[in-house]
Amino acid sequence: MQQKPPPPGEPDPAAVHHTSTVEQGKFCTAHCTCGWRGPARRARSKARSDALEHASAC
Description:
By secondary structure, the protein is an alpha+beta fold. The protein has a domain at about 20-55. The protein is about 25% helix and about 20% strand. It has one helix spanning about 45-55, and strands at about 20-25, 25-30. The chain has a two-stranded antiparallel sheet with strand order 1-2. Strand 1 (about 20-25) and strand 2 (about 25-30) form a beta hairpin. The longest helix is centred in the C-terminal third of the chain and has 14 residues, at about 45-55. The protein starts with 18 loop residues before the first strand and ends with a helix.
């Protein structure tokens, strides 16, 4: 079964990047569904900023 392409002007759901933050011990890292990973940060706010910067650059 094939999926229909999105209507004109709508983003392709497969092309939309979704970011999240993952805590590993004392560090927090931003991750994206495209495979990108930000540097480990001690501040969650900085990891979230990394994710927002990545999402706006893609």
